[in-house]
Specification:
single chain, alpha+beta, Hypothetical Protein Pfu-838710-001, 2 domains, eight-stranded antiparallel barrel, two-stranded parallel ribbon, 8 helices, about 25% strand, globular
Length: about 350
């Protein structure tokens, strides 16, 4: 991507490096396992900070410096991956000891996560340990289990993209590149999604699949622009919040919008709240994030304003417009597609009638 003005540094996988050095969890006593995972988390965080410094050094050439929005840190793994290899209680206990929330190690640190599905799901003949001797999953069954847990560990992230095995490896790499380009804005940052209206009365009181529940507060800003300008606060379990400023513009396609999104701090968020659009209500909703088949789903159930309470909308973000969704989870009940229906856009829902 250097020819497009980007500066990229790749961060190697921490677990491969540490296991390859001789600390192999397959030969550990049970009481050693949690300290081992904590070591991985500490090393991952440390590596990311150090490689960020390396990226700054690489980007700040005197004659041709690279702007911050074109500096990319590409990671083989991230902090939430550790959750896939621990029981849930000790994992969250470890975070609390370090004064960290899930939003700190997932949302604050990564702009997007691209999950490459293991070849053990549908392309078993290509599954091998030869390219990574530190891989712990010796057979496809274990590999599928680890893949499911890793996929679930990133539930809750606002930009999770799944690259399945519908093509061979060269095709997977092509789709990964397309996803990366869309995230970083080549040629522009795009949001491609389909939206569905659910009959909320048929939803189970508890989702029967692994998921993460995110609380969202969304406020539209009066800035005089022709697009939608909004700020959003995302939180989870009342532990930590992440703030975003987003600007969206329509395209010729009802499935596709140009999207510019940046993280902001709490001070900036509270300052921008003062410029809230007086014609719009504040939207609050619970978002249930889960994976099904080869897709990542976000189920929004609105709690405020009162006139929207109980409204249930399902969104699926795609890598391209022609992408097939596949079968919907049966427990969702009656589903009606409302992609492109202006009355179900978030801005229209927020607008006071």
């Amino acid at each position: 991507m250097a020819d497009l003005g980007f500066c990229v540094i790749s961060v190697p996988e921490v677990a491969t490096r540490i296991i390859g050095s001789g600390l192999d969890p397959r030969f550990m006593e049970p009481e050693q396992f949690e300290p081992f995972e904590e070591l991985l988390l500490d090393t991952q965080i440390s590596d990311e900070e150090n490689y960020k410094r390396a990226l700054v050094i690489k980007s700040t050439r005197v004659k041709n410096p690279v702007p911050e929005n074109k500096r990319i840190l590409l990671l083989d793994r991230g902090c939430p991956d550790i959750k896939a290899y621990m029981e849930e209680t000790p994992f969250y206990q470890m975070l609390r000891r370090k004064k960290l929330a899930m939003s700190d190690i997932r949302d604050l640190r990564y702009d997007a996560v691209i999950h490459l599905m293991t070849a053990a799901k549908g392309k078993e003949e290509y599954y091998t340990l030869e390219n990574n001797p530190s891989r712990l999953e010796a057979d496809p069954v274990l590999a599928r289990e680890a893949d499911d847990k890793t996929l679930a560990a990133w539930d809750g992230h606002s930009h999770k993209i799944i690259i399945d095995n519908s093509t061979l490896f060269d095709g997977k790499l092509k789709r990964v590149l397309q996803a990366v380009q869309r995230v970083i804005g080549i040629p522009v940052s795009l949001e491609i999604e389909r939206k569905f209206l659910l009959d909320g009365t048929t939803l189970p009181w508890k989702l029967p699949v692994p998921h993460q529940k995110i609380q969202i507060e969304q406020i539209y800003i009066a800035d005089g622009s022709s697009g939608e300008s909004r700020i959003r606060r995302r939180s989870q379990d009342n532990e930590g919040s992440v703030y975003y400023e987003t600007f969206k513009q329509p395209t010729e396609s009802p499935m596709k919008r140009i999207e510019t999104e940046n993280q902001i701090d709490a001070v900036t968020y509270n300052r921008k709240v003062k410029n809230a659009n007086p014609g719009c209500d504040v939207i609050r909703k619970n978002r249930y994030c889960f994976s099904h088949g080869n897709k990542y789903f976000e189920l929004d159930i609105f709690t405020e304003p009162e006139r929207l309470r109980g409204l249930a909308l399902l969104e699926i973000e795609l890598t391209e417009e022609s992408e097939e969704i596949g079968d919907m989870p049966g427990w969702l009940g009656k589903i009606t597609e409302v992609t492109g229906d202006p009355q179900y856009s978030n801005f229209a829902l927020a607008f006071r009638k």
